[in-house]
Amino acid sequence: MTITLRQLDYFVAVADAGSITAAAQHLYLSASAVSTTVTELESTLGVRLFTRHARGLSLTGEGRTVLGRARSLLREAEDLEHNATALGSAVSGTLTVGCYSTIAPLLLPRIIAEFAERFPDLTVRFAEGSRSELLEGFALGRFDLLVVYDYPFKDDLPDRGTLLPLGAFPPYVLLPDAHRLAGTGPVALADLAEDPLILFDLEPADQYFLSLFGAEGVEPDVRYRTGDFEVIRGLVARGLGYSLLTQRTLQPVSYEGISYVPAELACDHGPLNVVALVPSASRLTERAQAFVGAARDILADPVRYPNR
C-alpha cells in the first residue's frame, strides 16, 4: 500500500488540532473520514502515530518522528506545484523561518521588506524563540530553516540537518554612560570583576557568556538575569550594571531613549557563528536559497564599537 499526500495532510491536521473532531472541522470533512485515513496511514507505516485518551490524541514517539518528515514532504510537494505552474517566474510560495530571539529583530525586518519588493508572490512566515524551542519545532517539521547561533560547546546541530554559515559576531560589553571605562577603548573583563553583571540568560547564552569570564579567570558578580535583549539595554542605560551581548545595533539607546556605551572586549574570544539549519542542502528550495543569500548580505559586516 502506498502513502498518499492526503494521508499525510490529514495526519498533520490531527497532530496540530489534537483531536479527530477538531481536525475534521478544520478540513471541512467528517470525523469518520479523517479517522479512517489516519488509521490507513498507521497501517501502511506499521506504527502507532497517536495515543488515544479521553481528552483527544497525543503523538507517540514514532508519531513525532513521522510528523517532521510529513511536513517536509508536504512542503516539497507544494514547492513542486509552484515550480510546475510558474516555470521561469520569480520565487513564490511560503517560507517558514524560525529565528533565535536576539537575531530576529536585526535580520527579519530587513529580509521581509526586501522580499516583499523582490518576490511579491512569496509569503514569509516566522517565529522567534529560544534554541530549544526552535529545535523542537524544526524536528516536528514546522520550519523550513532555522537561524541560530552555533555555540562552540554545543555539537548537536550537525545531527539535525545541514549547517549553512550566515555570519559571525564577536561578543562585546555594554556600559552605562557614566561608567569609568566608557570612552577608554577595548575593555578587559578583569576590570569589571567588581561591577554588577546583568547576564543574558536565554539558554544557552548564559553558559556562553559565563565561559568568556572563565577563559579570562574572572568570577563575575551576577546581579540580574534576563532573557530579554531590550531589558538588558534598559538596565545598563539606567546604570544598574554592565552586560555582554553578541547582537549589534546601530543605535546604543534603550527603549526609554537613554544611551549606553558599547565597547569591544580587550581579549579576543573569537566570533560567535550564526548559521542556517536546513533539513538538507541538496534539497534546498529556491525560496530558502534566496533567504540564505539575503541573510549573508545583511550579516556580512557587523557594527564595530571603538569606545573612544
Low-confidence stretches: none
**By CATH's scheme, which homologous superfamily of the largest domain applies?**
Periplasmic binding protein-like II
CATH class of the largest domain equals Alpha Beta
Strand content: 15-25%
Shape: elongated
Secondary-structure element series: HHHEEHEHEHEEEEHEHEEEH
Instruction: Tell me roughly what share of residues is in helical segments.
Output: 25-40%
| Number of helices, counting only DSSP H or I runs of 4 residues or more | 9
**Number of beta strands:** 12
| Mean pLDDT across all amino acids | 89
Separation, N- and C-terminal Cα atoms: 71 Å
**Largest beta-sheet details:** 5 strands, mixed
CATH architecture group name of the largest domain:
3-Layer(aba) Sandwich
Q: Radius of gyration, rounded?
A: 23 Å
User: Order of strands across the widest beta sheet?
Assistant: 4-3-5-12-6
- Total discrete domains: 3
The structural class is alpha/beta
- Look up the CATH topology of the largest domain: D-Maltodextrin-Binding Protein, domain 2
